Amino acid sequence: QRMQREMNVWRNLNHPNILPFIGWCILGSKSCMVSPWMENGDALKYVRRRPQANRLWMLVQVGEGLHYLHTRPRNPVIHGDLKAANVFISSTGVARITDFGLSELVEDEKAPRCSMAWYCGGNPRWQAPELLSAGSHEAQAAWSTISNYTIISPQIFTGQVPFFYLSVNTTLSVFNMVLDGKLPEHPLDKDVATRGLDDRMWELMTTCWSVDPTKRPSAGDILSHLAAALRGRPDDDSDSKGPASTRPGKRARVIEPPVKVEESDTSIHGFIH
């Protein structure tokens, strides 16, 4: 059922910052979904390998994909498990969102509700507090995803998972921190600020983590802030922006390497090599 659910959402998506769905197949006893091979792996592994990667540009790309999901003319999509592990980087440096197993199709834009899958899946490190509260099924899913999106931002800048500094670093301790409205600590490392996580960027993120979901900016608003910040910075790593054809304002066909096959019967998607 999860595979069917994910395919129903994924197969109808078409955007440069969404990992394409190619099809499905059966390998032995496993049902698998097929997507293009992303040789640079996920976003967290990528920035750990490449300290000079342009992280602001990476976040702009993720924001573009998220904005597309939220503003599709028919059936906007709410991603239920957005985190760095679910953002893959292509050979040309293009960031692409994947893993739509907990995503929701919104049929009525005036009433975007969360399904029970949101409360049974995902990880509290990346979840909005309203998604962890018992009986809060009336949470606005799009606003919750905005919180998820900006939770991955410090992770991209620092290379560390949210709340990595807790002395008792368990799922339960993180759950309680998020439920209490506690925010991740502001990284004070000068290298992190140099990469783009300065005071203004941190202020934007804390706005996105507002306990009141209605006070969070939209994906479009966040993109405007990120684009302005990006224009004011030199290129950290031209490769991390991909070829000129993939940069803002230009569109061209991007040729991807061969496909890889994704297992569907694991709680966290892995790949068959």
TrEMBL record:
Domain of life: Eukaryota
Pfam families: PK_Tyr_Ser-Thr (PF07714)
Residue numbers spanned by region Disordered: 230-273
Domain Protein kinase: from-to ranges: 1-228
Keywords attached to this entry: ATP-binding, Nucleotide-binding
GO molecular function annotation: ATP binding; protein serine/threonine kinase activity
PANTHER family: MIXED LINEAGE KINASE DOMAIN-LIKE PROTEIN, SERINE/THREONINE-PROTEIN KINASE TNNI3K-RELATED
Protein name, UniProt field: Protein kinase domain-containing protein
Taxonomic lineage of the native organism: Eukaryota, Fungi, Dikarya, Basidiomycota, Agaricomycotina
